[in-house]
Design a protein that fits this description.
Layout: H1 11-15, E1 21-22, E2 30-31, H2 42-46
Antiparallel strand pairs: 1-2
Length: 63
């Protein structure tokens, strides 16, 4: 999830190993392939504005 305080700095879409996030400098990042997210939290941990929240979904049948 990309929050409204995203400044479009480019760190998240540059660092994402799966290309889940895309963007254009100075525009808010967008999640384009949520299903590809591997839950590494690189985007969230490296966002200087705390504008990224990774929401990991638990697979069905797992607890």
């Amino acid at each position: 999830m990309v929050l409204n305080n995203c400044t479009g700095c480019g760190i998240c879409w540059t660092i994402c190993p799966k290309g889940v996030l895309v963007g254009k400098l100075k525009d808010k990042a967008m999640v384009v392939s949520e299903g590809q997210c591997m839950g590494c939290f690189s985007c969230q941990y490296n966002c200087p504005y705390n504008a990224i929240i990774v929401q990991v979904k638990v697979a069905e049948g797992r607890q």
